[in-house]
Amino acid sequence: MINKSLKQLGAMLQGKEISSVELTQEFLNRIDRLNPEINAFITLDKDRTLSQARRADEMLSAGKGTALTGLPIGQKDIFVAKGWRTTCGSKMLETFIGPYDADIIERFDAAGAVNLGKTNMDEFAMGSSNETSYFGKVQNPWDRNRVPGGSSGGSAAAVAARLCAAATGTDTGGSIRQPASLCGLSGLKPTYGLASRFGMIAFASSLDQSGPMAKSCEDMALMMNVITGFDKRDSTSLNREKEDYTRALNKPLAGLKVGLPKEYFAEGLGPEVAKVVQEAIVEYKKLGAQIVDISLPNTQLSIPVYYVLAPAEASSNLSRYDGVRYGHRAKEYGDLMDMYCKSRAEGFGAEVKRRILIGTYVLSAGYYDAYYLKAQQIRRLIAQDFENAFKQCDIIMGPTAPSTAFKTGEKADDPVAMYLQDIYTIAVNLAGLPGMSIPAGFAPSEDGKRLPVGLQIIGNYFDEARMLNVGHAYQQVTDWHTQMPEGIE
Amino acid sequence: MEWEVVIGLETHTQLQTKTKIFSGASTAFGSEPNTQACVVSLAFPGVLPVLNQEAVKCAIKFGLAVNAEIAPRSVFARKNYFYPDLPKGYQISQYELPVVGKGSMTIQVGSGDNAYEKTIRITRAHLEEDAGKSVHGAQEGMSGIDLNRAGTPLLEIVTEPDMRSAAEAVAYAKKLHDLVQWIGICDGNMQEGSFRCDVNVSVRPKGSDKLGTRREIKNLNSFKFMQQAIEFETRWQIETLEDGGSIHQATVLFNPDTGETRAMRSKEEANDYRYFPDPDLLPLAISENDINTVKAQMPELPEAMKARFEAQFGLAHYDANALTGSRGTADYFVATVNEGSDAKLVANWVMGSISAKLNAEDKDISASPISPSGLASLIKRIQDGTISNNAAKQVFEAMWAGEGDADQIIESKGLKQVSDTGAIEAIVDEVLAANASMVEEFKAGKEKAFNALVGQAMKASKGKANPAQVNEILKKKLGA
User: Fold this and answer.
1) How far is A349 from chain B (nearest CA, A)?
2) Does residue A326 sit within a domain?
3) CA proximity to A55, closest of A110, A136, A132
4) Do B16 and B45 lie in a common domain?
């Protein structure tokens, strides 16, 4: 049962084959058993969770169920949830209890879904390995010595280890897609503005976007129907008509023009990943897709641009954690400045501090034009690259990450190597486009483990329904997405 | 050496919106600390700002009132600094692209023969949020933070360094204070901090076109203090320079107890605010249509009303100017005239007795014990000859003191003037008989004797005789 999709489990709930309480309890039991090692969840509140399950069962018996009613979902701990401890992976918020619900929490709640618990993440979503979390590293279920990716590493590991049916993530530079790739999941970052950022703790506001992490594209379509929609509490939320993201799932792919950016297959891409991605492309050809060679000439600039803009915004977004109103405050301090300095020195981890420093620097008088302004200009060029590319193709494909899951600690002391994990994903955030990763196969590790490889699918603005269609068609002819790691029974 | 002072103002006006600029929390003044601080005011994790469109309307109104450019696209920026009353660690303001651009305002400085007009250029006006307040001393050894005010909408109005004296600066500040109330965007309450001025002062040798180094006097919340602060600061700067010293750019505070300004921090050690566009807010777009909608709701502006008063009522420029000094005064004047009173008489009363009383009692015209219709009924009795001007002054005093309406007071005090020709003739006859010598003097060509006789007749009537009739009858009897 644990390997069933949201759609299948939903049908079982609707058909009264199982109750939400039973299903939820099953996953809670698995969490009890496996989470102490995997560490995918950092906050559980079984009473709250089970009471939501009971409410879902009432909705179902009253015939008021929707597609997600009664389904237990892991919520990334970046989303503020009323009554739930919400830490964002930081000591700074170790004891912070959410006073309100994020938009996404409200939406899942309204759909009758069950909040199974809060998942681990890199501190303030800054990281690609989940190693910056104050609450400890997360194991990749495919190889417990390896990282699950990040920053949505807890959500990825939770779904991969079948500790929940699906989970939410957020993606500022690849934080949904890269862990999805490293854990063998499907993950989608929507077009910027489709999902409300209200209640999602800000990292880099102009890039942050939440999205689904699930086993299949079909499940993600169901979640997208819940996650997206206008929210007047977020000024960057787009006021568009609601879409049904399942509507195009079964369209044939014949004639689909798939663009392969040459920069995504150049130096830096691991050969094991390249091989799997090429094989996936072959599969798409069989499905009727036409391959077009394209170029995204400014790809190499995306990392430097990102590491100017994202830290700039983060340095300001994280100023509110000052120990005055909530969050960590140093026990011993002298004057006000000392309280600020000690509270922040103690409350933030090294990577967060590094980014605050970078961000503060690039916004400083005298450097602003050379860094921030220049980066904004290049950001527009990067968006133009995609605009030009989409004149030649319907969809862009390539690797999600340059390598498979790496060993815990391997890159922890080398920030630049860590940053390069997001070389293929960051440009999508800079352009505000939707990006998706789906499992495309496995590559053997040097110690003989099977490690998942993700295929990235990038669509034009608001083209999520087509992207899900493209992913679903592939998942109808392959079974990578249904495979489970060993040792999670 | 002769020195010239150069002054520019930055004024923070709190906009009269019901809710805060980026959240739905109330802006009412005087509530229990932190009862008007929602999760947005408190900057909880995950909250986002949403712009209050009423604040934008206020900015457009102001732009229209000072003939300024209203930006079709302006940008909110973050001003980053740490302070306990600044919950986000940044203030949302406008930096490079403000909502209101260049405009101007004409002020009247001085009075009487020394009065002159001057146009002050407005550089810009931008929308921003107010900070909270630190509360010291409420608890032993601790400082409190009240975030009720955090997020209150402000329009910061900046001038060019166009003022050359404390008097000009105060005249500008008063005029601006009147204007923002006139157009209904600010309640003007200076005690509660709704209207606060920062004054940039520098001095230079007269005739020089180079600006001196300025010091900024922060947070002046009364016109009296502004006058004192600028005068002190000007003297201090001149003395410093004359003693061979130099001025360093600094922020200074005015101490009303000592009447002195003192440096708070020098600009060198000031914050680098690291301004950048706020990614949580879209650029503010204002269309022609938006502007026209606000235009249609604008009240008649003081300048237009002044011109109308001159043309329609034949008022002097000075009078029209005084009557349009505040919306309250103008409304009072118009309401009284609309009751049928002669406009010039109304103008004299409003600018004379009423204004004197209000000043003496430090009251606003809205708190005048005599309503426009009350004043109109008094003026009516002057116009129809029921009372003399002298008697009218007594009636006015009594009305102000709340002793009743004009007719009641005239009746009870017996102030009705005698206009009965027979009665006046009798009095005049008595006076002529009793003052034969004066009559002789008059006949001998002494014009002054006539006035003395009028005086005697008025005295004999206990002031109640209609002076015009006394004049007329005396002339007739004397064959003049």
Assistant:
1) 18
2) no
3) A110
4) yes
Chain B CB within 8 Å of residue A290 CB: no
Question: Taking the CB of residue A85, how many other CB atoms lie within 10 A of it?
Answer: 17
3-state secondary structure of A410: coil
The rounded distance, in Å, linking the Cα atoms of A451 and B319 is 89
CB distance A45 to A82 below 8 Å: no
A201 phi and psi, to 5 degrees? -65, 125
- Of A214, A47, A376, A57, the C-alpha closest to B96 is A376
Residue A151 designated active-site = yes
Domain with B133 in it: 10-203+267-291
Task: Identify the residue whose tokens are 């890039």.
Answer: A207
In B, which residues are within 8 Å of A318 by CB distance?
A: 89
What are the angstrom distances between the C-alpha of A42 and each of A75, A77, A117, B202? 10, 8, 8, 60
What is the pTM (predicted TM-score) of this model? 0.91
Q: Match 């004192």 to its residue by tokens.
A: B228
> Which structural domain, as residue segments, surrounds residue A107?
6-257+391-482
Counting the structural domains of chain B, the total is 3
SS3 B347: helix
- Which residues make beta-bridge pairs with A19? none
pLDDT digits (tens, 9 = 90+) for A427-467: 999 999 999 999 999 999 988 899 999 999 999 999 999 99
DSSP B157: E
Determine the distance from the C-alpha atom of residue B73 to the mean position of all C-alpha atoms in its chain, rounded to a whole number.
Answer: 32
| Integer Cα distance of A433 and A207 in angstroms | 10
- Percentage of chain B beyond pLDDT 90 is 72
Tokens of A186: 């499907």
Find out whether A318 and A356 touch, Cβ atoms under 8 Å.
Answer: yes
Q: What is the pLDDT of residue B474?
A: 86
Separation of alpha carbons B124 and B97, rounded Å = 10
Cα dist from B46 to A196, A199, A205, A320, B129, whole Å: 11, 4, 10, 11, 19
3-class secondary structure, B10: strand
Whether B206 and B4 have beta carbons less than 8 Å apart is answered as yes
- Could you say which DSSP state residue B333 is in? H
Known catalytic membership, residue A175: yes
A80 belongs to a structural domain: yes
Q: Within 10 Å of residue B108's Cβ, how many Cβ atoms? A: 17
B311 shares a domain with B169: no
> Is there a contact between A199 and B47 if contact means CB atoms under 8 Å apart?
yes
Please report, as a single letter, which amino acid is at residue A92.
M
Arithmetic mean of pLDDT, B255-268: 81
Q: How many other CB atoms are found less than 10 A from the CB of residue B140?
A: 5
- Touching check for A237 and chain B: CB below 8 Å? no
Same domain, B125 and B69: yes
Record: contact B39-A99, CB cut-off 8 A: yes
CATH code, domain with A437? 3.90.1300.10
Cβ count within 10 A of residue B361: 11
Whole-complex ipTM: 0.96
A361 found inside a domain: no
Judge if the upstream peptide bond of residue B208 is cis by omega within 30 degrees of 0: no
Under 8 Å CB-to-CB from B287, ≥6 apart: which residues?
B72
For the cut 70, the answer to whether the pLDDT of residue B67 exceeds it is yes
- Shortest CB distance from B84 goes to which of A99, A326, A336? A336
Option in B39, B48, B88 nearest A234 (CB):
B48
Q: How far apart are CA B470 and CA B461, in angstroms?
A: 10
Asked if A96 and A86 count as a contact pair (C-beta separation under 8 A), the reply is: yes
Q: Strand A210-214's sheet: what is its strand order?
A: A41-43, A114-119, A72-76, A166-170, A210-214, A186-189, A435-444, A450-459, A395-399, A257-261, A290-294
pLDDT digit string (tens) for B36-57? Answer: 999 999 999 999 999 999 999 9
Helix (H, G, I), strand (E, B) or coil at A214: strand
